[in-house]
Design a protein that fits this description.
Number of strands: 0
Radius of gyration: 20 Å
Oligomer: single chain
Shape: globular
Helix content: over 70%
Number of helices: 8
Strand content: under 5%
Length: 224
């Protein structure tokens, strides 16, 4: 058991270092105004698959993963959690998704990366490109839900469907010509880190509060 736990911790540390290294590489390249080696080739390959029926499908997907779509989905999740008396979980989802949206606005202004101009965009976008707001918003919601579903029997179904959803939204943004692949990847990374941070802070607070409540209850019981 101990060796398995040590292996697990080592694996998580390696993944964390890899994520930090990738994020540093992405941010450094974007700050200097450059493209990542995979940006243009991936976009051109995706654009080569252009067909009217695929365009219609991806336009719907990009709407679902946009600001209004994510807001409606998040609101539905929050209301369901509150209805079922999962108030802390509702707060976790709300803070994760809303915080990711605010963080995205700040990062866009910080990096001020222009949109790709390889071909005419299939949708109108006026904000900066890096990181992708669609990627951040959708993955923040998915990651938050995965945390909530992790200890249930639906864990792996949730992972599969969640990863498929954010992948399709990411592809739709590249297909429509409004994001580089590095915008999408950066959005996923920032959302993952933000979700982990939110989870750690919020649930750390909840545990401390529960411990204080438990001690207070013990004192009250002993006093009786």
């Amino acid at each position: 058991m101990t060796s398995w736990r040590a292996l697990k911790i080592t694996g998580l540390f390696v993944v964390f270092v890899a994520i930090v290294a990738l994020a540093t590489w992405l941010a450094g390249t974007v700050r200097t105004g450059g493209l990542l080696p995979f940006d243009e080739p991936v976009m051109r390959w995706i654009h080569a698959q252009n067909t009217p029926w695929l365009t219609n499908i991806l336009l719907v997907i990009t709407q679902v993963g946009g600001g209004i779509g994510i807001m409606l989905l998040t609101t539905g999740v929050i209301l369901w959690l509150i209805k079922n008396k999962h108030v802390y979980r509702a707060w976790f989802v709300a803070v994760t998704v809303a915080g990711a949206g605010l963080l995205n606005v700040c990062l866009k202004l910080l990096f001020a990366r222009e949109r790709p101009d390889f071909w005419q965009h299939l949708v109108h976008e006026s904000s900066y490109s890096f990181p992708s707001g669609h990627a951040m918003g959708s993955s923040a919601l998915v990651f938050a839900l995965l945390f909530l579903a992790w200890k249930t029997k639906w864990r792996w179904w949730s992972v599969a469907l969640g990863m498929l959803a954010i992948a399709l939204i990411g592809v739709s943004r590249m297909y429509l010509g409004v994001h580089y692949p590095s915008d999408i990847v950066a959005g996923w990374i920032v959302s993952l880190v933000w979700t982990l941070l939110t989870y750690g802070v919020l649930y750390g607070y909840i545990k401390r509060k529960q411990k204080r409540g438990g001690r207070g209850q013990d004192k009250k019981t002993s006093g009786d």
